[in-house]
């Protein structure tokens, strides 16, 4: 028996090291996509990377065998390591094998340690190359070290010839097929990424504009390369009504047309993204504030032109919010937040407007958002209270009614003005449950005053337009009266002119049922809205309230004439009149001379909480 080692073909050895580094780099390139993906796409990248790396290691092993010159004939059958047939016994040097494994572990650790430096980079990156070299060299090096540590014990009689050419060809064909498979997987994954997955991940399917993911990538890679730039958030006005009336299919077609007009308007000056719904973002690098305002005006002009869609001639306007970099922020989040705040200002000031972010508007928006959040919890936390302002009969010198007014005792900010929180409650719909609570509270309080013989007058409550939307106002009022055992004529509902004129037929129907129940109705702030005098006699109203704007300027001849005419109209329609905002004896005398006897204002009493109102009743009853 003789012992011999294995010799190597240097050129093939070098080829195997190059192959190892190339395979590892390809696998890392695929795996680096994982952190940028989610769900099934994430698993696809992992499987692709594992397939390339696994096949690559197999190919490296057999290229290493091709580089080896065995002292005996070697034959192969399809399979793995056990498929090698050799007429010899193999012995291994344990210490060299241990060193080889140690070097493999160290090199692989160093290679993987570099991974965090390029894990989000899909393209070329030098740290990715370094990592591939470390891992590739360690894998190929393990093979050659292990083979070099092998010794063959063979019998001369069994060895007829060395490693034969036919074996090289078999291995070459196998390795070539595996290499082709790796290339196919890598090329397929790259094609899928570029033409399918990227489109799915970064493009809005409806408008074919870049979506939020595309927006993040654009800001990260491109936008902040310029000295200054503008960010627009464009939101369509009244888009919801089009969706609700004509359907979502028409709404989608409208969004597609809007996208086309935005692309045509912006051109190559910037990029357009769809944020979702009817909201778009436009990024204009290298843009001044004056240029941004001019561009916004051009966009708004283009968008408000009519849209011929499926036989419909649609009209929409757009509101725009603008932020500038670096003035309003130096990152995507800050710029979008600033533009969104400016957009809210445009919406809040009447829509179809363009606003540039400013710090005061931001403070206002932040406070509003904070109040809205706290308002949702205020009812459950019993933070609301009702105050009452007297209505005084100037002829009889007695209280003839009270107006219930809502107040919010905020735990941190104290008393919040109704002018600040009522619009928020209206917009969010929170005014409905708040009004339900107020109806029950006021009716119960009024019934208590009757029982205790403190007062026996009707109390009025302001109604929101939201209370008329679902047609349940009658049931809500009837329930509050039943629970409190209050007689209906001691409750008065105050509505504004805008409520009376909006969906007038339905509003009149609901008010008529309440009038038949015995509940009183008054028309608040008369003369300041948009009511038609031709329809006034059709509205079931007991009382007209003259707005304080006329009383405050009652010295003016024009205002005095308006007051006189309102009183005359009420008299001819058999309605009562209440003058609001009365503060001076001169105003009282003028109103009395014009025929108005019931007045309300600071002269007679400020809005008071329940405990103060009891004392006020006692004092004014004694005085009268």
From TrEMBL:
Alphabetical list of CDD domains matching this protein? EAL, GGDEF
Keywords tagged on the record: Membrane, Transmembrane, Transmembrane helix
InterPro entries reported in the protein's UniProt record? Biofilm_reg_signaling (IPR052155), EAL_dom (IPR001633), EAL_sf (IPR035919), GGDEF_dom (IPR000160), MHYT_dom (IPR005330), Nucleotide_cyclase (IPR029787), Rev_trsase/Diguanyl_cyclase (IPR043128)
Q: Does the keyword Transmembrane helix apply?
A: yes
Superkingdom in the source lineage: Bacteria
Q: Where is the GGDEF domain?
A: 227-359
List all membrane-crossing ranges: 6-32, 44-65, 94-115, 127-149, 169-192
| Domain spans labelled EAL | 368-621
What cellular component terms from Gene Ontology apply here? membrane
Q: Domain (MHYT): give its ranges.
A: 8-215
The record, for PANTHER family, names: BIOFILM ARCHITECTURE MAINTENANCE PROTEIN MBAA (PTHR44757:SF2), DIGUANYLATE CYCLASE DGCP (PTHR44757)
Q: Which NCBIfam families match?
A: GGDEF
Q: What is this protein called?
A: Diguanylate cyclase
The species this protein was found in: Paenibacillus etheri
């Amino acid at each position: 028996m003789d012992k011999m080692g294995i010799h190597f073909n240097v050129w093939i050895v070098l080829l195997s090291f190059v192959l190892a580094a190339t395979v590892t780099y390809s696998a890392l390139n695929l795996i680096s996509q994982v952190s940028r993906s989610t769900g099934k796409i994430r698993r696809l990248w992992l499987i692709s990377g594992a397939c390339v790396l696994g096949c690559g290691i197999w190919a490296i092993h057999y290229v290493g065998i091709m580089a080896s010159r065995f002292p005996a004939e070697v034959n192969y059958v399809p399979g793995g390591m056990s498929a090698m047939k050799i007429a010899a016994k193999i012995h291994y040097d344990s210490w060299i094998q241990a060193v080889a494994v140690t070097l493999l572990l160290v090199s692989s650790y160093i290679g993987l340690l570099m991974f965090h430096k390029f894990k989000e980079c899909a393209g070329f990156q030098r740290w990715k190359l370094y990592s591939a070299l470390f891992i590739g060299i360690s894998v190929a090096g393990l093979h050659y070290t292990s083979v070099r540590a092998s010794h063959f014990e063979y019998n001369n009689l069994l060895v007829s010839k060395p490693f034969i050419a036919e074996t090289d060809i078999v291995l070459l064909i196998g390795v070539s097929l595996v290499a082709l498979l790796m290339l196919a997987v890598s090329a397929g994954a790259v094609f899928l990424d570029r033409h399918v997955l990227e489109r799915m991940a970064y493009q809005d399917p409806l408008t074919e504009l870049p979506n939020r993911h595309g927006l993040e990538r654009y800001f990260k890679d491109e936008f902040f390369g310029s000295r200054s730039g503008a960010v627009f958030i464009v939101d369509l006005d009244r888009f919801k009504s089009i969706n609700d009336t004509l359907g979502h299919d028409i709404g989608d077609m409208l969004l597609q047309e809007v996208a086309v007009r935005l692309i045509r308007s912006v051109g190559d000056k910037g990029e357009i993204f769809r944020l979702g719904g009817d909201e778009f973002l436009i990024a204009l690098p290298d843009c001044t504030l004056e240029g941004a305002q001019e561009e916004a005006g051009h966009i708004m002009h283009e968008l408000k032109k009519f849209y011929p869609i499926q036989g419909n001639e649609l009209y929409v306007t757009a509101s725009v919010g603008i932020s500038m970099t670096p003035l309003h922020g130096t990152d995507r989040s800050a710029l979008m937040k600033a533009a969104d705040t400016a957009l809210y200002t445009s919406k809040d000031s009447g829509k179809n407007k363009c606003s540039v972010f400013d710090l005061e508007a931001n403070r206002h928006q932040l406070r509003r958002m904070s109040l809205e959040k706290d308002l949702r919890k205020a009812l459950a936390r019993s933070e609301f209270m009702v105050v009452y302002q007297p209505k005084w009969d100037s002829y009889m010198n007695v209280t003839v009614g009270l107006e219930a007014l809502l107040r919010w005792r905020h735990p941190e900010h104290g008393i919040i003005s109704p002018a600040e929180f009522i619009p928020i409650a209206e917009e969010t719909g929170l005014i409905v449950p708040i009004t339900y609570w107020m109806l029950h509270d006021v009716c119960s309080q009024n019934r208590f005053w009757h029982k205790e013989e403190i007062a026996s007058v009707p109390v009025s409550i302001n109604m929101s337009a939201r209370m008329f939307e679902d047609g349940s106002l009658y049931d809500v009022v009837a329930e509050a009266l039943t629970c409190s055992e209050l007689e209906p004529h001691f409750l008065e509902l105050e509505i504004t002119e805008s409520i009376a004129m909006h969906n007038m037929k339905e509003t009149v129907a609901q008010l008529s049922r309440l009038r038949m129940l015995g509940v009183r109705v008054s028309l608040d702030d008369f003369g300041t809205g948009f009511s038609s005098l031709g329809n006034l006699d059709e509205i079931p109203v007991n009382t007209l309230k003259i707005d304080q704007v006329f009383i405050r300027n009652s010295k003016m001849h024009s205002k005095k004439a308006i007051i006189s005419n309102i009183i005359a109209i009420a008299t001819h329609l058999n309605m009562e009149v209440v003058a609001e905002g009365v503060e001076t004896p001169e105003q009282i005398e003028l109103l009395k001379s014009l025929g108005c006897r019931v007045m309300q204002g600071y002269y007679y009493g400020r809005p008071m909480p329940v405990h103060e109102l009891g004392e006020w009743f006692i004092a004014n009853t004694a005085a009268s």
